[in-house]
Here is the input.
Amino acid sequence: MADSSDAQALSAWVTAVVRELGIEGALEREGIVDLVLDLASDVAHGVSRPGAPVTAFLVGVAAGRADDPAVAARDFAEKIGRLADGWDADSERGAPAGDQSRRA
Here is the structure.
C-alpha cells in the first residue's frame, strides 16, 4: 500500500493535471484514481507492464468520445480489466470487441 506522502503527491499531481488539461468537472474525481490504478495493475500483471499506461490512455480516449465519459470510463475499465485477467486464453487474443462469435 502506498504511504501517505505518495497518496498526497498523487492527489496533488492529479489536481494539477486536471487543471492544466481544463477538465475540471468533466468527470467525478471520486474513485477515478483507484479505477485507473486497478486497470493498470490488471494489465501489468496479466499482459505486460508497458501495456498498462498504453491501455489507460486508450480507455481514456474511448471514454472521452462517449456521451458520458465518467460512466464509459468505468464500463471500459471493467471490460478491459476482464480481458486482461483472461489474457492467457488464446481465444481472446485478437478478437475485435464487436466479434462475439470468437468469444466464449
In short: The mean pLDDT is 85. The chain has four helices and no strands. The helical segments are 4-21, 32-46, 51-64, 69-85.
